[in-house]
Amino acid sequence: MKTLSRKDEIILVAAHLFNEKGYKAVSMRDIAKAMDIKAASLYNHISGKQEILSEIILKVAEEFTVGMEKMVSESISAIKKVEKVIELHIDITVNHSEALAALNNDWMHLESENLKAFVQMREDYEENFRSIIKEGIDNGEIKSYHPEVILFSILSTLRTLYLWNQKRGKLDVNILKKDMVSVLIKGIK
Amino acid sequence: MKTLSRKDEIILVAAHLFNEKGYKAVSMRDIAKAMDIKAASLYNHISGKQEILSEIILKVAEEFTVGMEKMVSESISAIKKVEKVIELHIDITVNHSEALAALNNDWMHLESENLKAFVQMREDYEENFRSIIKEGIDNGEIKSYHPEVILFSILSTLRTLYLWNQKRGKLDVNILKKDMVSVLIKGIK
DNA sequence: GTCTATAGGATGATAGAC
DNA sequence: GTCTATCATCCTATAGAC
Fold first, then answer.
1. Which residues of chain A have a CB within 8 Å of the CB of B25?
2. What is the DSSP letter of B5?
3. Which residue of A has its CA nearest to B20?
4. pLDDT digits 0-9 by tens, B166-180
5. Against a cut of 0.90, is the pTM above it?
6. How many CB pairs under 8 A join A and B?
7. Which residues of A touch B179 (CB under 8 A)?
8. How many contiguous H segments (helices) and E segments (strands) does chain A have?
9. The dihedral of CA A81, A152, B150, A93: what is its sign?
10. Quick one: how far is CA A180 from the chain centroid?
């Protein structure tokens, strides 16, 4: 049972509020009020609003990057890799649902170096996933539709999983993984 | 060739800016500057920022509602209805790409009656789609996975289609429809 | 670590001249 | 239909007391 630092507490509360209204619609006063302190007190723990946003977004972005890089080097089939990508998204969604709202909707409010780092990570991630799909098509594991359509279709489902997770409440992770993998890979017909 | 009213012009310019930075990050001064006038002049054509947002969002929301209601009464198979839902989303995405960004990301900034109307339309839409999927499962057209997983998987892909459309530029609508229908219905394996 | 006070600027919106 | 001028409020962030 670890104790949260004051900074971590701020980030947690902020992520919750950003999830509800978006980064720009949440003021430092809102965050402070939710912690029962005054806005000025926040600055004793963080440098500013921007730092809060970048901590929220870049922390999860790195989890995706690490998870993906661990996977690409494994010697398993392309379909198996796709399954692992799906599971990676489900695991991160269950643990960081609110941070994913900021990552999806507020990344454009990151500034300079933070923005650059995020965009780079997202591009690398998509490129890795694209390679997996192309590899699968080349060796006949995956149907030869336009790879971009497959990439987009799966990724957009996984990226908005946090919305569904919030709406329906916590659901059994293992059942979700099984059905989601089936629907996305084998289709519904 | 119809001429845009000044109000329509404001809505078009605003939708473009909301698409880039989000409703809360765009000021009336930003919108005015993009039209080469002063912010105060906007109020001769619209009642305020809220009216701009509701015009953008509710107009497309109604297109979805009308399209869906036309469909549910048709006597065609459930799979055929799913195909038509996919085509409906693709058509609206191609024509109102920027408005869809606001609909997806800024609907929570709608106020009172506008917010109520939107939430109601979205709930009805999802419920109609859910019924189509359940009908398909019941009569054996659709595999019997959890209907909610199927609903979410297809809908989240369709709802974020505007992002992909913007990234890749205008693509041939008919090719997109064909491949998208295949991937979402028949799967990739 | 939290407070009060406040700087310095942006924001949505209105009044009234042209 | 657009302008200038302005109001009242909100915003992020800092200074300095306790």
1. 24, 109
2. P
3. A108
4. 987 667 788 888 889
5. yes
6. 121
7. 145-146, 149
8. 10, 0
9. positive
10. 17
